[in-house]
Design goal:
Length: 176
């Protein structure tokens, strides 16, 4: 259970650091089932692949629900449109750990997109010296959601499933 919570907590942090918190600036993803593969370097977190069933309403809700959480922990959240996609820069502080992140987002949000994030964390569990990490999120549209899925469902490694509409459960995973 601890590993599941760590993975889910990682997904929350991913959402805060990759620009979901600034929904108005990013396009809504195509409705259906998306595969999200997250690969990190400079971190003990293993590669993680999850599936997310979404639709326009869920994407907008995710952005609106994550945004207040991000505003509480992030002093800076800038997203700019570029010739190839978007660039996001953020400065956040969670549980005494200060993180500065830069993300480059490319793709069409209809069939595939990629988010490449570099982060520098200092304090908290990273220690006073700080730690640099890179994370690549590769998202691929798989088609329609499975019959047993409803918009908002996320299936984590090991089959653990939750719905992003249960945002209070996600908030509880953030360190105080």
């Amino acid at each position: 259970m601890t590993r599941k919570l760590a993975l889910l907590g990682s997904a929350v942090c991913l959402a805060l650091s990759t620009g979901y918190a600034v929904a108005d600036d990013l396009p809504v993803r195509k409705a259906g089932l998306w595969e999200l593969k997250m690969v990190r370097t400079g971190s003990a977190m293993p590669e993680m692949t999850m599936q997310h069933c979404t639709d326009e309403a869920v994407d907008k809700e995710m952005n609106n629900n994550v945004s207040p959480m991000a505003k509480q922990v992030c002093s800076k959240q800038d997203v700019k449109k570029t010739a190839t996609g978007y660039v996001s820069d953020s400065e956040c502080n969670v549980a005494g750990m200060s993180t500065t992140s830069h993300a480059e987002i490319t793709g069409d949000f209809n069939s595939a997109y990629t988010v490449k994030t570099t982060s520098h964390a200092q304090g908290g569990v990273a220690g006073a010296a700080g730690r640099d990490t890179t994370m690549t999120l590769e998202a691929k549209w798989l088609g329609a959601c499975k019959p047993e899925q409803k918009p908002g469902d996320i299936v984590m490694p090991g089959g653990f499933k939750m719905n992003v509409r249960d945002v209070d459960k996600l908030k509880a995973l953030l360190p105080k």
